[in-house]
């Protein structure tokens, strides 16, 4: 969990953002201590301290027995002259907002709240140095005991893997970057889910590679679209996320998984399967890597979605030749991954702390999903079934709710949303929105959604 000063700063910044955007005006009463603490998932003492600091800055006034009231609006920061995410298709802006966290209501976030990941029994294991041997460089492939343990986890998912087929990375994004660098050249066509993982789209554009979107249905890639584009594009790579798909939340069926591999074999495609939610999903769900056994599938995993977002530890499992090629590129570009972080994660797994944390995380995600689905459906939006088991839902929007103006309207209300255009290889698509279940039941967000639907 973030330290108390960081949580206080987060509450303060949320209030200041609402003041700057005009959502709160001089003379208006702030939410009660209890309401704000419940909405943000922090302690009441944290909110009290944040409000008192804003009183000391002259922004608020405390009225005994009544609450806290706005006194004045702070001047806009020079870097905040424009609202964040002014351009809905700017993928870099979406990433920056996830890091800077300027908007307090966050259904568009790609991550769960920090207290979902660090508030339990993990915190005491993350708060002090533990491994003196981690002061040295890691081995080129990564910490061997962790790689051996991960091979055991893959075996439970039906994927046979040896430590010589697995290399550690700085998270899934680093793994994707290595694959793009090693197996594409400028001008190449690459197949991707559409909608799909927007940081990957940004990487491909940066590498002067042409992403070709394959229509993503709720139960996996559209096989007719995949076959046509594999035949006509000349692509040799297909990037996909089979389970708890980001952004749609759907998961592939066994029949669709078989169809993907049949098409890949017929057209010489290497498939890159990203599985970021594997640790909170059932082992027996259909995975391309379990059907293919790493012959033509490169499998990516990460701890960034289940541990702290700043824990940049991931891994790649692949055929021995491919694993060796990717590891050689990793050494040339980054030398090594973090020995300290990998040993720490191994310790958490080995002593059972990680398993306890995952049980708690699954419970939180399940409860939040149910609350978000109820809230969205009550607001008039349909949620596709079956639910994928990750952190995301995908909702279709009525036509009047599309466009950059929707992002600006949300930001003016202090709400961070993730519209469909950001996730499309073509930068367009039917109006839709990704909703993070950790924030989707926020009353302010749901009220704003009802208002936008009604005004349309």
UniProtKB/TrEMBL annotation:
CDD domains: AAT_like (cd00609), WHTH_GntR (cd07377). SMART domains: HTH_GNTR. The keyword Transmembrane helix does not apply. Pfam families: Aminotran_1_2, GntR. Gene3D superfamilies: Type I PLP-dependent aspartate aminotransferase-like (Major domain), Winged helix-like DNA-binding domain superfamily/Winged helix DNA-binding domain. PROSITE patterns: HTH_GNTR. In the C-terminal section; belongs to the class-I pyridoxal-phosphate-dependent aminotransferase family. This is HTH gntR-type domain-containing protein.
